[in-house]
Write a structure and sequence with these properties.
Distance between the termini: 109 Å
Number of domains: 3
Strand order of the largest sheet: 2-1-3-4-5
Structural class: alpha/beta
Number of strands: 15
Largest sheet: 5 strands, mixed
């Protein structure tokens, strides 16, 4: 009866990924099978896979599961099978249990069924282990040498660069995308939205995939945005080797601010439930509790549909104080008006310099970095590394820096405009309208993230039974150091109330006009204005 055999082929590194090494091994093993007169049942391969790093080898493990089917294993050399002593013992036990002979192209028969064969296997296994250990030591020394010179140490190409030896050339397309993503995070965008954009095959130039050719996910993008290399730091095991060799993609201030934002424990990271409402979980009752969507009976007619509302989560709970609920449509329209005002203000104060956006982002990043340093100083006092007097002096220094940065931001015009303070013109209105339409087209998660990053939304108690009063809802601009954190009742009470309009009546008029602008789910100022004026005229004539 013809004996049956498996062929096993493995190569540790295949830079071309073409599998030529294992193909050559297979050809030699088939020639050996012909000379021995054995029938090859199947070929198992592990291409570009080491046998000394402890990682699983799918081909090798699949072959071991089917040893009962054959009499012989053919391989190019015994070290293709095992290079670690810890693997050799169970392999010998399996081979002995199934009475299998090992035949190699370059080392002859490898009979593990005899005591002599086992001894030779252990000797050769020790040699293979020594060679693997020496190789690891050489590679380690080489990496240390390269690291000391801030040179590329091999491995997968880092996203954003095309490194070659001592040269760290930027990959222009990837670097630009990383920079824009960093600024987008500081402006309140979500990781998921950036991933969606990068993975989009319709994106200009095609999908922007990872260096492994994979789609992006929130966690992989977060890790990439937080790499010190993005700011030009060459870091090995938390040690900065250089800060002037790798070309930076963003400034150190922007990178540190991005890390602060993404590491913020109060940042919403769970996207398992797709948000449906603009302000649920963002707007807060004056008691400090967040709001949730609900419905309320609208009028006395039982057939009238219930009106959607945002309500404090503690409404109706026993033992709780006074809590608030507001009409959802009015609240959403107020939020949109404040977003438009922010965009209007930016349009009215914008310079034509292309560097303005980067400058604004850097100023905001520096402000966020000050908040991080302040928190670290507090920890230093708690652990005894800094005295309380030193902390006071340190905080005074930070305060002066913060005021200077906020003043510079204010001069550029990036602060949120209060009612009645906007520089109004046809040009700025058109720019703001266009940008607002772009904002409306964002996924609801991104619109929510934008609002959360830029405003504290506080619902205040009004007179019972009265119609909606815009002055009982406060959209307070966040300081750049807030980073989306939720305030408690005491902190909310200390916030400056920002009036929506000069009077409650004027505020309602703004909301009525805004409802007309937004009719049909779009935003058409010219058409809506005409419709609104006609409505106002009809109302005046009827009175």
């Amino acid at each position: 009866m013809t004996k049956k055999a498996f062929i096993y082929c493995r190569i540790s590194q295949d830079r071309s990924k073409e599998g030529l090494g294992v193909a050559r091994q297979e050809a030699d093993c088939r020639a050996l099978a012909d000379s021995l007169g054995v029938e090859v049942v199947e070929v198992f391969t592990d291409n570009d896979m080491s046998a000394s790093n402890g990682r699983k080898r799918p081909g090798y493990e699949s072959m071991l599961m089917r040893l009962a089917e054959v009499d012989t294993i053919l391989c190019w050399h015994n070290d293709r099978l095992t290079r670690k002593m810890v693997e050799l013992v169970p392999f010998i036990e399996l081979v002995e249990a199934h009475s299998i002979t090992i035949q190699t192209v370059s080392a002859g028969e490898y009979d593990l069924r005899t005591s002599t064969g086992k001894m030779i296997a252990h000797i050769m296994g020790s040699v293979a282990q020594k060679e693997a250990d020496q190789m690891a030591e050489r590679m380690k020394r080489k990496r240390v040498e390269l690291a000391s010179k801030s040179r590329y140490m091999g491995g997968p190409r880092p996203f954003g660069w095309n490194p070659k030896g001592s040269d760290w050339d930027l990959n222009v397309r990837e670097a630009e995308a990383l920079a824009k993503a960093s600024y987008a995070i500081l402006e309140g965008s979500s990781l998921r939205a950036i991933c969606t954009d990068w993975n989009d095959p319709e994106r200009e130039g095609g999908a922007l995939l990872s260096t492994f050719g994979n789609d992006w996910h929130a966690n992989s993008l977060k890790r990439t945005l937080m790499r010190p290399r993005n700011a030009g730091f060459f870091v090995v095991k938390d040690q900065v080797m250089s800060d002037d060799v790798v070309p930076p993609i963003v400034s150190e201030e922007v990178w540190r601010a991005v890390c602060t934002v993404l590491d913020n424990p109060k940042r919403r990271t769970s996207m398992t439930r797709v948000a449906k409402h603009l302000l649920s979980g963002i707007a807060q009752c004056s008691c400090g509790q967040i709001t949730q969507p609900g419905k309320i009976k609208d009028g006395k007619n039982p057939e009238t549909p219930k009106a959607p509302i945002y309500k404090c989560r503690d409404i109706g709970k026993k033992g709780t104080g006074s809590h608030v609920a507001k009409r959802m449509e009015r609240m959403d329209h107020m939020a949109e008006v404040w977003v438009w005002r922010m965009l209007m203000n930016g349009a009215g104060n914008e310079s034509k310099s292309p560097e303005l956006g980067a400058k604004v982002a850097e100023l905001k990043a520096e402000l966020a970095n000050l908040a991080t340093r302040e928190a670290e100083a507090g920890d230093a006092v708690a652990t005894g590394l800094m005295t309380f007097q030193q902390l006071q002096a340190f905080n005074q220094s930070l305060k002066a820096q913060r005021e200077a940065l906020e003043s510079e931001l204010g001069n550029i015009g990036t602060h949120v405009v209060r009612a009645g303070m906007m520089v109004d013109s046809a040009e700025t209105r058109q720019v703001a309208d266009d940008r607002f339409r772009e904002w409306l087209n964002l996924p609801v998660d991104d619109r929510r993230a934008f609002i959360s990053a830029n405003f504290h939304v506080v619902m205040l108690k009004g007179k019972s039974g009265c119609k909606f009063n815009p002055e009982t809802v406060s959209f307070v601009p966040r300081s750049p150091a807030d980073l989306g954190a939720r305030f408690d009742a005491e902190q909310l009470a200390a916030l400056e109330h920002v009036p929506f309009a000069e009077t409650p009546a004027a505020g309602l008029e703004i909301l009525e006009r805004w409802r007309a602008y937004r009719e049909g789910g779009g935003f058409d100022r010219s058409l809506a204005t005409a419709k609104y004026l006609n409505t106002m005229r009809e109302h005046a004539m009827s009175n």
